[in-house]
UniProtKB/TrEMBL annotation:
GO terms for molecular function: heme binding; iron ion binding; monooxygenase activity; oxidoreductase activity, acting on paired donors, with incorporation or reduction of molecular oxygen. PANTHER family: P450, PUTATIVE (EUROFUNG)-RELATED, P450, PUTATIVE (EUROFUNG)-RELATED-RELATED. It comes from the Eukaryota. It comes from Gymnopus androsaceus JB14. It holds the Pfam family p450. CDD domains: CYP64-like. The lineage of its organism: Eukaryota, Fungi, Dikarya, Basidiomycota, Agaricomycotina. InterPro entries: Cyt_P450, Cyt_P450_CS, Cyt_P450_E_grp-I, Cyt_P450_sf, Cytochrome_P450_fung. This is Cytochrome P450.
Length: 477
C-alpha cells in the first residue's frame, strides 16, 4: 500500500489460468457452480488467483487468510461494489443496499439497519419468532410432504410482520409470490459472466429494444418486478398509516419519523425495508435456504437424531431461546448447516477502489479489480475443516485448547455472511430464525430417511437443495 506507483507497476500479478487473446478468461467465468472451478484453481495456482475478462482484472480469494487480509483488514479500500450494468443500471439494483457504491447513502442504509437488526432489537423479536414457528409446526403436522412450502411461509410470515406489519393469510399470499419472483430474478442476474459484454461495453445499454438485443426485454421485465417489490409493500404501509390501521413495523417507524419526507428520504426508506426480502443477503432467502439444507442433512444422517436425544434436546417442554446455551450439539448442528452447503457459496463481489493499485504478498492488484471471496472453498478446506465433505456437527465439540478460532473448525458464520463493511446486516435475526425452527422441529418430529435421490444444489450464486422427499413424522401425539 505504501509503495511508489512506479514500483507497484513492476510487481507481478497473482498467478492464474491462461486466457485467450482479447477476451481473457470470459469463457472460464460462464460456468455452473463457479466456486468449484475457483476451488480447483486454488489447488493449482494458490489461494490468490488472478484472471481477466475483456480487460477487467478479477482476483479470487480461496483462503480464510487472504479474505481476512484484504476484505476485512483493508475494508476501507475493498468495500466498493463492481459496476454491473444489467443488474445495477438497467434493472435498478445499483440503488440497493447490497450493490450501492460506498459513500454517504450506503452509510445511511447501515445506520437504519442497525435500528432494527442490532443485538438488543433482535432479542426483542424472539417472542414473535416463537409464535410464528407455530406456522411451521401446523404445516408439518397437516402436510409433511410439503415441508418446503411450510418453511417458506414460516419465514415469510416472520419477515413481513417485522418489516411491514403484514400478517400472511395463506400460502399463496401475494407478498410471498413477490419475494419468490425477485429471488429468482436476482439469482439469474448475478451469474458470473452472464452479462460481461455489457459490463465491458456499457454503451450497449442505450441500444433500443427493437434492435433485437434480448437483454433489453429481459431487463424491462426484471425492472418491473423489482420496482413493484420495493414500491408496493411500502405504499401499502403508507396507506395504512393514513387510514389509522397500520400495525407496528420497521417500515411504519421509518415513514412516521418524517411528516414531509423528501424523495431522497422515501427512496432510502423503501430500499432499507426491502433488505428483508431482496438481494443475496436478504433475511427471507437465507433463512429458507438454510432450513431446507437442515432438513436434507437430517434425512441423510439419521444417526444424528439419536445423538440429539442423548444430548437431552427432546423433553416434554417445547425448547425456547433460553435453552440455547444448554443445547451444545444443536448449536454445532446449526454451524454445520452453514458450512456444509452455504447459501452464498461465493460472496457478492467486492471491488478495489480506483485511486491506486494495491500490493499483497509481493503481487500487484490493479485498481478497480473485482475481488471474489470463495466462501465455499474456505468452508471445504481440509486444513480448516477435516473431512470437509462430510456433515459432522461434532467437529465443533473438540477441546477448546486444540480448536481455536484461528486453527481447526472455526465458526463458519465468519464466512457465511459476507465480509468487511459488506457483512450481512441481518445475520443475527437469520441465526435466531434458524435456531428456533431447528430446535422446534427436532423436539417434535422425526426426519428421514431420504425417500428420493439425493438432490443436487442449484448451480448459481444463490444455492439451495433441489427437490427431494423425506419422511417427517411427529415424535408423539
Amino acid at each position: 500500500m505504501s509503495e511508489s506507483p512506479l514500483h507497484m507497476h513492476r510487481l507481478p500479478l497473482p498467478p492464474g489460468p491462461r486466457g485467450y487473446p482479447l477476451i481473457g478468461n470470459v469463457l472460464d467465468m460462464r460456468v455452473e457452480r463457479p466456486w468449484l472451478t475457483y476451488f480447483q484453481w486454488g489447488k493449482q495456482f494458490g489461494d490468490v488467483v488472478h484472471i481477466s475478462a475483456l480487460g477487467q482484472s478479477i482476483v479470487i480469494l480461496n483462503s480464510a487468510k487472504a479474505i481476512s487480509d484484504l476484505l476485512d483488514r483493508r475494508s476501507a479500500v475493498y468495500s466498493d461494489r463492481p459496476r454491473m450494468v444489467m443488474a445495477g443500471e438497467l434493472v435498478g439494483y445499483a440503488n440497493s443496499p447490497i450493490m450501492i457504491s460506498s459513500g454517504p447513502r450506503h452509510r445511511e442504509f447501515r445506520r437504519l439497519f442497525s435500528e432494527v437488526l442490532n443485538p438488543r432489537k433482535v432479542e426483542e423479536w424472539r417472542p414473535l419468532q416463537e409464535q410464528k414457528v407455530e406456522v411451521l409446526v401446523k404445516g408439518f403436522m397437516e402436510a409433511p410432504e410439503a415441508f418446503r412450502e411450510h418453511i417458506r411461509r414460516y419465514v415469510a410470515s416472520l419477515v413481513f410482520e417485522i418489516s411491514h406489519g403484514h400478517n400472511l393469510k395463506a400460502q399463496d399470499d401475494p407478498l410471498i409470490r413477490m419475494a419468490e419472483e425477485v429471488d429468482r430474478d436476482w439469482s439469474q442476474l448475478i451469474i458470473p459472466g452472464a452479462y460481461a459484454v455489457l459490463d465491458v461495453f456499457p454503451f450497449l445499454q442505450h441500444v433500443p429494444e427493437w434492435a433485437g438485443f434480448t437483454f433489453k426485454k429481459e431487463a424491462r421485465n426484471y425492472k418491473k418486478r423489482l420496482d413493484e417489490s420495493i414500491d408496493w409493500p411500502y405504499q401499502q404501509v403508507k396507506d395504512q398509516i393514513a387510514a389509522g390501521t397500520a400495525r407496528p413495523s420497521f417500515t411504519a417507524s421509518l415513514i412516521e419519523r418524517k411528516q414531509n419526507p423528501t424523495k431522497e428520504d422515501e427512496f432510502t426508506f423503501k430500499w432499507t425495508s426491502g433488505i428483508f426480502y431482496t438481494g443475496t443477503e436478504n433475511i427471507d432467502l437465507r433463512s429458507v435456504s438454510s432450513l431446507a439444507s437442515f432438513i436434507l442433512a437430517m434425512a441423510l444422517n439419521p444417526a444424528i437424531d439419536r445423538i440429539l436425544i442423548l444430548d437431552g434436546s427432546h423433553s416434554e417442554r417445547r425448547p425456547t431461546f433460553q435453552d440455547r446455551r444448554d443445547l451444545p450439539y444443536v448449536e454445532c448442528l446449526i454451524k454445520e448447516v452453514y458450512r456444509w452447503n452455504p447459501v452464498g457459496p461465493i460472496s457478492v463481489p467486492h471491488r478495489l477502489g480506483k485511486d491506486t493499485d494495491d500490493e499483497y504478498r509481493g503481487w500487484r492488484i490493479p485498481s478497480g479489480s473485482v475481488v471474489i471471496a470463495n466462501s465455499w472453498g474456505v468452508m471445504h478446506d481440509a486444513g480448516l475443516y477435516p473431512s470437509p465433505f462430510e456433515f459432522l456437527p461434532e467437529r465443533y465439540l473438540l477441546d477448546s485448547n486444540t480448536n481455536s478460532s484461528d486453527q481447526m473448525n472455526p465458526d463458519p458464520r465468519k464466512f457465511a455472511f459476507g465480509y468487511g463493511r459488506r457483512v450481512c446486516p441481518g445475520q443475527l435475526l437469520i441465526d435466531d430464525t434458524i435456531y428456533i425452527a431447528v430446535v422446534t422441529i427436532l423436539a417434535l418430529f422425526d426426519i428421514g430417511p431420504l425417500e428420493s435421490e439425493e438432490p443436487r444444489y442449484t448451480p448459481n450464486i444463490i444455492s439451495h437443495p433441489g427437490p427431494f422427499a423425506c419422511n417427517i413424522t411427529p415424535r408423539s401425539r
